[in-house]
Every structure is written in C-alpha cells, then in structure tokens.
Amino acid sequence: MILRIDRLGAELPPPSDPDPEGANAVQELMGGRFGEMSTLMNYTFQSFNFRGRQSVRPFYDLIANIAAEEYGHIELVAAAINTMLTGASPAANGKPPGDALAAMKGRGNPQHFIAGGQGALCQDSNGKPWTGDYVFSSGDLVEDLTHNFFLETGARNNKLKVYEMVDHPAARALTGYLLVRGGVHQIAYARAVELLTGADLTSMFPTPRIPTDKIPESQKHIDKGLHKILYRFSPDDYNELTAVFRGPHPETGEELEVQDGPPEGALPRDLPPQPAVFAPDYAPEEIAEIAQRLRKHAGLPDQPTAAVANGGESAADKAAR
Amino acid sequence: MILRIDRLGAELPPPSDPDPEGANAVQELMGGRFGEMSTLMNYTFQSFNFRGRQSVRPFYDLIANIAAEEYGHIELVAAAINTMLTGASPAANGKPPGDALAAMKGRGNPQHFIAGGQGALCQDSNGKPWTGDYVFSSGDLVEDLTHNFFLETGARNNKLKVYEMVDHPAARALTGYLLVRGGVHQIAYARAVELLTGADLTSMFPTPRIPTDKIPESQKHIDKGLHKILYRFSPDDYNELTAVFRGPHPETGEELEVQDGPPEGALPRDLPPQPAVFAPDYAPEEIAEIAQRLRKHAGLPDQPTAAVANGGESAADKAAR
Amino acid sequence: MILRIDRLGAELPPPSDPDPEGANAVQELMGGRFGEMSTLMNYTFQSFNFRGRQSVRPFYDLIANIAAEEYGHIELVAAAINTMLTGASPAANGKPPGDALAAMKGRGNPQHFIAGGQGALCQDSNGKPWTGDYVFSSGDLVEDLTHNFFLETGARNNKLKVYEMVDHPAARALTGYLLVRGGVHQIAYARAVELLTGADLTSMFPTPRIPTDKIPESQKHIDKGLHKILYRFSPDDYNELTAVFRGPHPETGEELEVQDGPPEGALPRDLPPQPAVFAPDYAPEEIAEIAQRLRKHAGLPDQPTAAVANGGESAADKAAR
Amino acid sequence: MILRIDRLGAELPPPSDPDPEGANAVQELMGGRFGEMSTLMNYTFQSFNFRGRQSVRPFYDLIANIAAEEYGHIELVAAAINTMLTGASPAANGKPPGDALAAMKGRGNPQHFIAGGQGALCQDSNGKPWTGDYVFSSGDLVEDLTHNFFLETGARNNKLKVYEMVDHPAARALTGYLLVRGGVHQIAYARAVELLTGADLTSMFPTPRIPTDKIPESQKHIDKGLHKILYRFSPDDYNELTAVFRGPHPETGEELEVQDGPPEGALPRDLPPQPAVFAPDYAPEEIAEIAQRLRKHAGLPDQPTAAVANGGESAADKAAR
Amino acid sequence: MILRIDRLGAELPPPSDPDPEGANAVQELMGGRFGEMSTLMNYTFQSFNFRGRQSVRPFYDLIANIAAEEYGHIELVAAAINTMLTGASPAANGKPPGDALAAMKGRGNPQHFIAGGQGALCQDSNGKPWTGDYVFSSGDLVEDLTHNFFLETGARNNKLKVYEMVDHPAARALTGYLLVRGGVHQIAYARAVELLTGADLTSMFPTPRIPTDKIPESQKHIDKGLHKILYRFSPDDYNELTAVFRGPHPETGEELEVQDGPPEGALPRDLPPQPAVFAPDYAPEEIAEIAQRLRKHAGLPDQPTAAVANGGESAADKAAR
Amino acid sequence: MILRIDRLGAELPPPSDPDPEGANAVQELMGGRFGEMSTLMNYTFQSFNFRGRQSVRPFYDLIANIAAEEYGHIELVAAAINTMLTGASPAANGKPPGDALAAMKGRGNPQHFIAGGQGALCQDSNGKPWTGDYVFSSGDLVEDLTHNFFLETGARNNKLKVYEMVDHPAARALTGYLLVRGGVHQIAYARAVELLTGADLTSMFPTPRIPTDKIPESQKHIDKGLHKILYRFSPDDYNELTAVFRGPHPETGEELEVQDGPPEGALPRDLPPQPAVFAPDYAPEEIAEIAQRLRKHAGLPDQPTAAVANGGESAADKAAR
Questions:
Q1: Which of B42, B138, B164, B196 should be substituted to probe chain D, the one whose Cβ sees the most D Cβ atoms within 10 Å?
Q2: In this complex, do F243 and E291 lie within 8 Å of one another by their Cβ atoms?
Q3: What are the distances in angstroms from CA B72 to CA A2, A305, B8, B181, B271?
C-alpha cells in the first residue's frame, strides 16, 4: 500500500509562455520506453514479484523503495507538461463557440487539446501510448538489476536530449532534477550488481559521458547533496537499503547516504482553469460554488484546507498560526 | 510523492495447488481495460492534470486519494497471481538441464514462465499488454467522474466473472476483497456526480445487479464495514473527502464514513524461490549468502528487519519485545 | 447512409453443444487481417475516399455495394460466435456466487467470458484486436482493386481453414455461406482489374485451388445460384454494377448476374440469456418487466413487434393475418 | 444486413483552401477512442451480441438503430477530411516526376499523402489506428447503456474541441451537425438508463456544459428539429424505439420524436481527382474512357446514372423529367 | 545464413542541408506497411516456411533470393535517413549543457533525436513501429506470390509519393534506385504468378501508371540495365531463378536477365559524429583513442582496414598498392 | 548488402511427433522482446546508424558482424517451428472438405494453422507480433553495447526456459545451439564494454547462473569450440573484430578466437507439403509439374540443382562426381 503526499519532489516554475511542442517532447520522459512510467512500473512489478525476499532483503528493499520514488517522478513530469500547456488556449472567453484552439492546430500533440484538457497523456513524444510491454520482471535478481541499470542509462540519455531540445523553464527544472535523481538510481543499481557479481559497473559513470554537474539546472540539487542520497520513501519499511547503497559515489568519491523519509520537496501549483478545453469545466465558477456549499455542509472551512504553491495560505496553515 | 508501506490491503491464503490457467484469468484484473492498472492510472493522471483544484478541492482530494488506494490493488492482484503460480515448477532440482516446465506447456500464459519468473505480468488475460490508451483524463471534472463511475462498473463486472471462473483460494480472497473496495469507489464517484449534477447514479446500485453481500468471500470485509469506509491514504493531505463521500450507502442506507489512514491490511507472504525459472536465482542460496554478508557489513541484524506473514518474527519485532 | 434490416444473410442452426475453442477460431473471420471487419472497412473507406467517381462510376458502385454486403458478413460471423458460446455457462442458477464459469477456465478466449457476455469480440483468433492498420485505401483505383482481389483470396484461405478446424454446425453453416459469397467478391474484383488493365486474374480461380462446390455446406447456396449473383444492396443506388460484374463465371462459365435488393436471408435467432455473465442482466426477468411496461406505455402491443427465427410469430405477423 | 443509400446525412461545403493540419485534427473524430468508428462499432457489436432481445426489444431496437445512424457519421467525417485535403497537391501536372507533395512535407499526417490518396484514414489525430479494443460489449444491458452514454459524452467533448481548433468550413459543417446528432444519441442512452434504473442522467445535460444551440453551425439543424428526432434507419424494423425515446428533451423540454426513415440528407460531392497521388489514377482520363466503354457495353446511358451535388443532373434525373 | 558485405546497393550523396521532416517521410519506406522492412521480412519468412521446396525450387529460389536483396534496401533507406539527419544538430560544441536540439523541437519525428542518435528508426512516417503483423506467409505458393506482387505495387506507390514529397538529394537518390529495383521484383512476382496460373499480371505494368523511366533519378540505373536484371545474391545457391525470371520485360520488351552476384554498389559513407546526441559518444575522440590502442594491440594497422566513400584509402587499399 | 547461403547454422532433427504447443513456446525465441528478431534487428539498425565508424571500427565491425549471424538464428528458429508443426495436419487426404485441422482446435497458436501454412510467424508465444519498438539504437556506443549485453542476457534466460518447457527434439537441438552461440555474443558485448569503460562485465558470467556446459544438447557444440569462436560472416569485411573479441573466455579461460567465414552448418531439410493448409498448394503435384516444365525450358537439369538434408544428392552434387 502507499500513502500519498500532496507535494512535488522539486519546485517547478510557474506557467510562462506556453510551449506545446516542448510539452510534446517532454512526453517522452513520461510514456517513452525509457520514461518515468517505465522506471515506475518496472521496479514496482519487480518488487511485487520478488521471491525469497527475506533471504536477500537488502535488494528487495532497494528495488521496492526506488519504485516509490518513481511515482513522484511521473508526478513531476506531468506537472511540467501541465505547466507548459497552460495558457496555450486563452483563459478568458476561450470557450466555444469560438476558435480558441486554432493556434494549436498542427502544433505538438493534438490529443493534448482534443482528448485531454491541456494535460499530460500516458504517451511518448510520438503520441504512442505507454505499454506494459516495457515492463521487465524476470524474477532473476541479477538480471533484473542489470536491466534496471540499463534502463536508468537509457533514461539519462533521453533526459539529456530533452534538456537540449526544450529550454522552457519548466522543462529545464524538470530535467535538471531528474538527471540528479535518476543518477542516484543508476548508481544504486550498479552498486547492487557489483555487490552480487563483482562486476564494477560504476566504472561506466557517467554514462552518457557528460557529468551531471555540468548541467546548470542540476547544480542546485547537487549542492544540496541530492546526487548521493537515497531517500527511504516509507514510514517504517525498506530499512535494509543501507546494506547496498553504500560506498563511494562513482564520480565524486563522496560516501553514499540513505536518508529516512522523502525529500522536503515543494508544494504543487494550482494551475489555472482552461475553459476552452473545459478543464475543470466550461464554467468553472459554477462547480466552484457547488464545492463551496459542500465544504460548508461538511463543516470544512471556507478556504481550502490544503496549501498550494501559488495559493497563499491554506486554511490549515492559517489555523495553525 | 508517495510513501510505501510493505503491507497488503488484505490477507491472501498461502500457496496451495498451482493454477496457471486461473492466474491467467486473474491477469484481466491487472492489465485488462477494466483492471487495476486502469483504475490506478486513470485516477493518478486525473489528479496530476487537475486544474483549479483549490476551487473544487473536495473533488480533487477524492480522485487523488482513491488513486492512492488503487496502488494497493495492483499490489494485491500481483500477490494473488504470484501465489497461484507458486509450485507450478518443481522447487527442488527444478533447474535446467531438465524439463521442469514441461507440465506448463500449453497451459495459461506462456510468458508467465518464459519471460517472467512465475510472476505477474502487465498484461490482460489474452496476454495483451496494458496500454496508456486506457487512461482517460479529459480535465472536465464531471466527465472524468462519469468515466470513473463507468470504469468501476466495468471493473466490478470483470471481478465477478473472474470470481465465477477461478475458485483458487487466492483468487477468491482477491476478488472478494476487490469487490467490496471497488464498490466503495463506485459509490464515491456516483455520489460525486450526483453532487455536481443532480443525477442520482446511486439508484443504479448494485451494478451488475448482484449485491456484493451475496459473495461469501466479501462477507467478512462487509462485516468489518469496509463497504462504507473510504480510507484517507495520506499522512496529512486529502482532508476534504468528507465533503463528497457522505450520505447513505446506496444499498444498505448506512452512513458513509471517511477514515484516516490506510486499513491495517496484512503482512505479505514471502513466496518461495522457483529455481526452475531462476527466481530469484538459479542458486538462491548463493545470493542469500552475499546478502547476509552485506547485512553484517552494514551493521544490520542477522535476521531480516522486516516481518512477513510466513516468516516468524522480524528482527524488529524481536527487538521490540 | 444505411438502412438496417433485421435479418441475417443466411440461416444458422440453433445453439447446440457449446464450443468455446471453436468460437475462438471463428474470431479470425471477424477480426483477423483477412476477416470480415477487414473486408467491410477496406471497401467502405475506399468508397468514402473515391475521387472522380462520376467518371468511373461502375467501379465506384462496385466497391460501395460490396462494402454494403460485408456489413451482413460481420453480422453473420458474430451470430455464429454467439451461437457457439451459448450454453457454455449454465443458464439456470448460473450466477455468482458460484463457479458457473469454472469449466471455461483455460478454454478458448477468456475475454469471451470475462470482458464480454459470451459474445463476439472485435479480435482475431489470438485475442488481438482488429486494427485500422488493416485498411488499405490508396485512392489508386487499379491498386485498390488489386488489393481487394488479394484480400478476398486471403479471406477465402482463412475460411477454408476455419472450416477444416471447426465442425460445429454454426461454424460450418457460416463458412459454407461465406465461401460462396466471398467467392463472388473475388470474381468481381478480378473482373474489375481485368476490365481496367487486361490482366486476366480470373484464370487464377479457384484460389486456394479447391473448388467451392466441393464444400457440402456451400452446395445449397450454389444450387440457388448465389455463386454467380451480386446483390445490389441499395434501394436506388449503385446501378452501374452491371457494367463490371458481367461475363462468364471463371469456374462454371455461367453468366454473372446482378440482382436488385438483398437476398431474402433469414430471421435471426433470439439467443437465450446467459445470466452467469449478466447477459442481458443478472436477473433478466426484471428488465423484461420494465420493457413490457414501456411497451404498454408507448402503445405497442404486448408481444414484440419483430419476429425472430425461434420466436413464433411477431405481433406484426399476427396482425397481418 | 444493410441497404446503402448514396447520400450524406448533411451537406458539406465544396473544397476550398486545403487544410492538412485541420484534416489531421478531424481524424480524431474518425479513429479516436471517442470517434465515430467507436460509436459505430460499439453499438453494432452490442446489437449483434444482444441476448434475450425479444424480452427487452425496445432497448435492442434503440441500440441497433443508433448503430445504423453511426455508419452515416463515419461517412460524413470521411467526406469532410477528403474535402479538406482536396487541392493540397496541385491538380494539374501534379504528377511525378515533380515535387507536387513538397509543400505537404512536415504538415499534418504524412500518410494522408504517402499511404493514402489524400483521403481519410482509419486513424486518430496522432496517426494511431483505430482498434477493436475500443469496442465495449459486455452483454449487460444497463452497463452497455451506461457505457454508451459515457461514450457519447466523450465524443461530444472531442467534437467541441475540434470545432474550436479547426475553422475550415467543412470541419465546421461537420462538427455542427455531429454535435446535434450525437446529442440526440446522448439523450437516448441517458433516457434508456433512466427507464431501466431510475437514475436521472438527463440532469447532466448538457455535458460538456455548453448548450449546443450556442454553436452557430448547429443552429440550422436545431431549427429543423434535428436535436429531438431519432430517425428509424430501417425499412421495416426497429419499431419499438418509441418505447424508450420519449418524454421531454432534457434541455428544451420539447417532446422527443421518432421519425421513420433516414433524414433527407444531401447528395455527396464528387471530389476531383488528385493525380499527384494517383487518385483515382495517374492518368484519370484513361480509366474514364474505359468506364465509358463499359457503360455503353452494358446498355447504360452515357451519363452517370447517379447524381452528385456538384454534378448537374444524373441520367436518372434527366430521364425522370 | 548470410554473409554481409559492407557496401551499399547504390551511391548516396554526402550530407547536405539537413531535412528532418524529409527524413520522417522517408521512414515510411523503412517501417511502413509497404516499406522495405515489410518486403524483407515477408520474403524472408516465406522462404523459411517454404514446404516442398525441391519440387518447385525455381519459385523457392526466387523468393529466397529477392529476400536477400531486400536486406540491402533497408540498409539503403537507413543510410538515406542518416544522411538527411546529419547536421541537424551542430557538430561542434553541440553538447549539453546547451540547446543544441532546440531547432529540432516540433520538427519531424522527435524520437530521431531523443530516442535515437539522429539515426533511422524501425518506424513508419507516423512514428508507428513496424510490426510482425505485416508479414504474410500463408504457405500457399500462388497466394504468397500474389501477395508479393501486390506488396511491391504498394511499395512502388509509396516510393513515388516520397519522391514527390522530399527533394533532398539523398531521398531522391534513394527513391530513384528503389523504384528501379522494386520494379524488377514486381515483374518477377508477376511473372511467377503468370507461369503458375496463366494470369497475365504483366499487362498491369506500370502500376501506378507512371513509367519509371520518367523519373530522372531512376534513369542512370535504367541506363545500366538495372531494370531488367535480377541479381543472384548468393555465392552458390538459388540457381534456378532463371526458370522463372525470363521472357520479355513488360514495359520495354527487353529480355529479362539473371546475373550472378550482387551489384557492384558503392562504398558507404562514414557519417560524422553528432556529439549533441552522443553519437557515437559525448566525446568521440576518447573512444577513438581506445579503439586505436586496441587496434595496435591486435596487430592491426593504424588506419582502419576498411574503406569508406568519404574516407580516402583504407589501410587495405594502401597496402594493396 | 548480403549474400545468402542456403544452409542452416546447425543441424535439426527430422520431423517427428508434431508439437503445436511446443512450437508456440518456441515462437518466444522468434518474436519475443528477447527473441532472435530482436537481436537481429537491434544489431542491424545499430550498424546502419553507426556514426564515426572509421574512428572506432573494431566496434562497428563487431556489431555489424554479429548482426549477420543473427539472420541465421531467425532462420534456425523458423526451421525448428516448421519441423514441430509438420504432421500436425494429416499429409494424405488432408484437404477440405474435411476436418483435417480439428485436432488442432484449441491447441497452440491458432494462426499457425489458419493464417499460416503450419509455419513460423513473426510473433511471440502470446501471438503478439514482433514490433520495431524492440529496436534500441541510441547511437551512443557504450550505451548500445550495454543494451546488447543485457539483450543477450534476457535472450539466454528465455532460451533456457524454452529448453525446460519443450523437449521436442527440434526444440532441444535449437536451444542447445542458440545457448552456445548467444553465449558468444554475450561475451563479445561484455568484452567490448570492458574495453571501453573498464567495467568487468565478464565477472557476471554465466548469467543466468547455470553454465552452458550443463546442457547436454549444447555439449557437442562446445566440444567443437563453438563457445569461444566468433565467425566473421563476410567475404572480405569486418576484419577488425580481432581487436575486441580477444582475451580469455570468462568461464573457461580459453582464448577467444575469430574465425573467417561462417560455420559449416547443415543442409536444410525440405519439409513435406501439408495440403490441409495448402502449403505449398492444395494439389502440390500440379505446381510441381509446372516447375518441372519451367526447369526444362530454362535448360536446368531435371533434378533440383540444390541439395537438401533429406533429399539425396542434388543435381549439382551428382554432376560433381
């Protein structure tokens, strides 16, 4: 089971100039063969299918725990795509009858607008849906770990390329962060293979051969040590990570660390409605009224109880003062 | 972000007679159009893409929170499949050279054995991979909720049919539980639609028309009230569920309840190695030795720090005495 | 536009011993690359996309009209599959809780039971969905016609093989009929190519090389001349068929004929409910009562106004006496 | 079986400025998950698979009859796409050797030109083929109807978005019409669910929340009452529609009506050859000559016997004077 | 088994202006239903599956041998795509951190850059992967040959359209060559069908109806007689080609010829690194150094032993002087 | 370009008891994600897309040359499947009208019989077609090589499992051989990665952890040294293999060797016609007669010029005496 926390792993900038072609490129990091859906679902299924886990628990804990972090990565990719699509249709009066989407014709992924509400799709940059065929779960521990190292390598490659293609601030904040965190997972799996087989995969780092610290948007995360920390994404479980994720960082030589609990992360932004695509409604104010009545009826405060990055204080915050 | 808890939503029986054809049927509940991958990913993407969430937070909280529960459902489906496949190849000496899988030829999904390690696949009962095309996230709140109600209806249909087709104890424990919990989600979405539009979808319950309480394996969960409780799967967030999930249960008339935190659930079982398929290794004892050394090296106790259903006390439990 | 007639192109026998594996094989004739969905949709799209149709109307009329017949073929394939699946779950008391589908575990296509209501799927014999990728519509008339000749050849091959594999009476009635009608289409396209290019494709008949009249189940249709008649499936249109569908039948030498209007065909059977799969409901009698009330309310007679093969007289028939 | 009528459900404007990107967007209404291929094939398969139809015939008749109308909708979508692609390659001398398609490089769906003859494809707006996986046919009447209501809702959403994105006159004429007719189907299914379960889905109208009568291109159809009429697309069958399609229109309160026979519709246009893509031939005049000879040989008049919107009188019309 | 020769079937021009949209269009000739992957794999599987080959060896030899040529065609299509993508990212300093791919955002197939290293993909022009579903291998000789004739016809259509759409010199050199060679295969299969059935398919040539000799880029190959020669791509096998590939060329009347051995072809170009996409490395000079050391260690000469079109002499050539 | 040699890489036994379920399992080695289509096409595309190949030619030569061997592997997998399907329908009188395929209903892959002529399909063991999505060609040399090592590891896993599941002599001969040859490729890629990065992947051997020499059917190939030889599959090219494929075998310590030219291999068997599926014809003797006439007409000897394993001497052999 999981508990969900309504925070993002990293902060993204607010919407600025919309970038539908860029958003389409970022989809590769969501639904591509090496996108975050793939890292999430590979490690998740491997942890589900893990046999004899007590006997080799440090490895089970490693895979299960990294799976947990990946959920936060599909979340962040989605947030970046949503940010980049915000404003692509006019916010005011952007409703049919009209041609609010005319400027989007022939740009980016048409389903961002027609099928979706200017939101992330479970597809790659060619509009091809992610498929369960991308999940590799052989049950053979060494083989699964080798796969995972390779998967992270391919993922790093794709993140670097999206970095180079899309300079939208949200895309850069995203890739800058994912490169650091994916790098940690790449190390973790390489170390795991090394410990089981003696093969020193860490001599392959960095792969692709550009050091992550050359990426300006990664730098601030490296400064905070995020390149050498594996977070334990669980209240009480997966404690044996420390038996695998240890030793020197392959590039910097610093000692790898396991840290309990998730990173602090950042509050999500509440992205504005896009009425031209009926998100969250053709007339958002009408459903807002209903929600307000329901809140009242349920004894909830007038203000939302939850904070968002762009939303001032939440009712809870206020009450806490 | 999520925190992961190493417990299952419900208890499953230990492996008994293997049932590869049954395991294949259960795959429909994993990777079918109406399987748990679909419920998980639909609600997850809808929550990621939710615009104007502060203004209608009770609905955002509802979708985001149910998404969290669904993760536990793909986990439980996987556990059932793994249980049903355990023992399908001989545990002892079941290694090549030999014909340990000969009895599985022409039975069930061949990839359970050839591609996987007698474990769950991200596929449906026809061996067709789950696809991102199954994700519906229009951004239009009423439409997404309507979809979700329909999705839960289709899911309930498929669970009932798998119940009828597969009488393996693990499959029955699984479907008995999912029918109850899916029923709660079906109610939640129906109520949400009702509150927003006035359409009384709850008059459609139960749909399909067989009451869940006729299912013996569901009964014990109903006795505990699981049919009227929505768990809040978060340490601190998604508090506005109460504004939507309220009022009478459409079938029993009881008052619906929101409960903080996940259900207690059950410890997972540590399923035995299946060396014929190299899960977790051709020679599991060798990697166990390595793990033991690593544990020691990391200052961890000799016994695994985590408990499993079939594993006696964990080191942590022992220490706690 | 189309008008629909509630009759089948040919008579099928009533349900007898259910044959789920046979029904799965017959799916190839529905959703396979050379199945009836393919013939239907290829000719339909070609007719939609036909440019300069006035200038070469006999050919437009030919393609558009054969497209119309193919609709009746997917209908007949579906009817055969439904017939073969009837009774595969017990009609009485075959409802959950129970194991009414246990005997179907590991037999045929599991989605016939889990996803569907013991009904036809839009899939091939491997459970792979039909895809729009099977539609060929180049716009080049000679090329489209060549394709169509080849498509009918592949279709004939597959029908013969299904004939050999499945001896269920419904499958045999189906293939016996489709072989005759598909043969007519094969001739039509071959003749069309010949008239446009001079290539005598008709010298390739029969292909595969077994004469249709060796198939006992085809014989009765041949006796009625169905092997040399092209029906004009339209009240008033597609009259220029006669300019192409003419000359000697390539195998028998008889003169080809165009006949106005559809064949007489046969009343469909009303297949019985299968409550184990909730088709049409878990409790069919309840919805029947509602329907009866609605009928009355609408001033319709108590008896259904439509006749079915197994249903005695319809209200209309009775009134007509 | 069906009879085909060579008329369109509504009139489309003649080709004007070609719009390949717009044509690509319109493909979503053909082959998208919520496109007309999906509505057509869902209702068609549901009608084929309908068990116990005599006992609940009003519902069978409803689904079977709406299926028939949908055929006319894929026809109209195709006609719009063909119209929008006409002229995208030069009509005169637009043949290889040359670069007649150079201006189309990187615009819209490349397969419109390379695979097809500037004609409609069985794909969505991402070039992904329609798949039989989109067909839902559970056999459970209430569930199938609920699905259909949801499907029409998604379809309405997509039509509105295509309306906003593509202002080509053919696209607007198409969406204006489909919104009205799809709205009728949405009502029909909502009413059917209501009659069977008591759930008042009609209180959800309009969904998405913009009233159709705000769409200028829908207005003329509304003026003719097309928003409250269900046509009976059959010479003699499906007469029990009236038992379900009745009562007040959910938005206007007008009484719903069933009308015998199809709408008058409009003659299709004969779209001009596009020799650059060999549609209908590299040298259309050569095959026209052959056709003319065949006509003569068959005793047909020199002029085509069929009328087209842009073709002056047909031979039949002339004769009728 | 095969032996591979490091030469291309035809010469391609060196990289010039990059053309990502053109490269995407050319992908149709690689991974489209009628692309070279399809011709290669259809004939390859047909030859593998050929039963009773001794009894009809001339036909087996024909199919098996044409399969061999097709390998050279996927090679040439790839070379053209690679040529057209060269230079699309800056060669110098085109590495992250930077935005070396920014100009490629929204142009052509994003996976050319993100997933690949500015190289060919196994996809069509819509980014849809080639699929084994495109392989037709019925085992029925006449039917397989009919299919192959049709496949070559569709392939010729698509090559002509790509010719018209893409005027990049590499694309034109490619299509000019493929049209000639595909034409030979089209003739070969037509002749084979004719010899087996008497159907004179050659009267359909050219199809599409434009003669290949109107294509300027085909002319030089025709001048060398490549339109009437079938090469025997084997040291010693497939000698019975001559029994089928004989008689007059359907367009020119010249006698068809079988020639032993492959065409002379051309040396491939060694396309330059594209460091922005890490092809062959982020720092190509580093791996070059390693390779040089390995060469030395293995006793190989300092210069590469193999010649390339743009590479001056190879070590072998030099030694040969 | 390639030259094709009409020999198999290894000898397969003659057809014995047909094994359709086994043949279906073997399909995983053809069209599965880790099947031979994948190894073939990955290395082939990587070689096509290789940039800067002169500077790192030993690596280019390695990939290009292994690609060549893989062609022989899809050939051998196909031969095994064909062998295993031979006799599944009765050879004599096994033609329609009849039920020659009745015994195959519900066994194995139905398309082996309905779509194919008891021959290999381009699919995996679930009847899912191979897809171009399985091709990884990033252009980054280290990454491509890492992928290839992982791909061979997955392939070895699947071969071992098919070995265990299918004991048909043809399947065992196939897997025994492929395990040895795939092992060589696994070593080659591991060594290549080691040479470029210093990572000692060879310490991971064997992976999965069972030594190949425990497989009896592999033993005879190991005895001939096939586990340490890389064949150079080219008349003159790919000579720089020796710079990479060198050093000690990771398991045995023997020195790795490069050998010029392909292995001797074995003559293919001419598998008998299966007239029930029209392979090569409904009446094979008729087309044999035609072929004989063509042979004569072309001046070829009466006997086939090519030898087959089961065919006595070829005309060529005879002449050579």
A1: B138
A2: yes
A3: 7, 26, 7, 11, 18
Between chains, do E49 and F265 touch, taking CB under 8 Å as contact? no
Pairing between β-strand D257-260 and β-strand D229-232 as defined by DSSP bridges? parallel
Helix axes E169-197, F284-297, angle to 10 degrees: 110
d(CA A59, CA A238): 10
Q: Taking CB atoms and an 8 Å cutoff, what residues of chain D touch B135?
A: none
Identity at C169, one-letter amino acid code: P
Place of tokens 């995407």: E24
How far does C112 lie from chain F, in Å, by closest CA?
14
What residues of A are in contact with residue D164 (Cβ under 8 Å)?
89, 96, 98-102, 276
Taking alpha carbons only, the member of B286, B316, B294 closest to residue B303 is: B316
**Residue matched to tokens 């014929």:** B276
Are the C-beta atoms of B311 and A54 separated by less than 8 Å?
yes
Give tens-digit pLDDT for D68-97: 999 999 999 999 999 999 999 987 666 677
- Amino acid at position D225, single letter: G
Write the residue in E126, E166, E167 that is nearest to D127 by C-beta. E126
D172 — alpha (psi -120 to 50), left (phi > 0) or beta? alpha
D to F contact (≥3 Cβ pairs closer than 8 Å): no
In sequence order, what DSSP letters do the residues of D36-67 get, joined into one string? HHHHHHHHHHHHHT--STTTTHHHHHHHHHHH
Q: What is the dihedral of CA C93, C95, C97, C102, to 10 degrees?
A: 100
Task: Indicate the helix (H) or strand (E) that contains A320.
Answer: helix A315-320
Query: pLDDT per residue over E27-65, tens digit each?
Result: 999 999 999 999 999 999 999 999 999 999 999 999 999
Task: Determine whether the interchain pair E53/F244 forms a contact, defined as Cβ–Cβ distance below 8 Å.
Answer: no
Closest CA to E14 of E109, E118, E119, E84: E84
- A-chain residues near B119 (CB < 8 A): 45, 48-49, 51, 137, 139
Residue A46 identity (one-letter amino acid): Q
CA-to-CA dists, residue F174 to B203, D284, E153, F29, F157, angstroms: 61, 55, 37, 10, 14
Instruction: Verify whether the Cβ–Cβ distance E106 to A24 is below 8 Å.
Output: yes
| Residue for token pair 């198939």 | C215
Can you give the pLDDT at residue D91? 74
Judge E/B contact: 3 or more CB pairs < 8 A: no
CA separation for the pair F74, F88 (Å, rounded): 22
F311-318 contacts at long range (C-beta below 8 A, 24 or more positions apart) = F311/E54, F311/F270, F316/E239
Q: What is the C-alpha separation between F184 and D286, in angstroms, rounded?
A: 60
Report the C-alpha dihedral over residues D87, D92, D95, D98, rounded to 10 degrees: -90
Instruction: Give me chain C's average pLDDT, please.
Output: 95
Work out whether strand B229-232 and strand B2-4 pair parallel, antiparallel, or are unpaired: unpaired
B28 vs C111: CB contact, 8 Å cut-off?
Answer: yes
User: Is this prediction's ipTM beyond 0.95?
Assistant: yes
Task: Compute CA distances E159 → C134, D282, E149, whole Å.
Answer: 20, 14, 15
For residue E78, the SS3 value is: helix
Neighbours of F297 (CB within 10 A): 12
F21 and B106 in contact by Cβ < 8 A? yes
Facing residue for E161 by CB, picked from D101, D109, D126: D101
What average pLDDT does range A255-268 have in this prediction?
Answer: 97
- The token duo for E213 is 């000799």
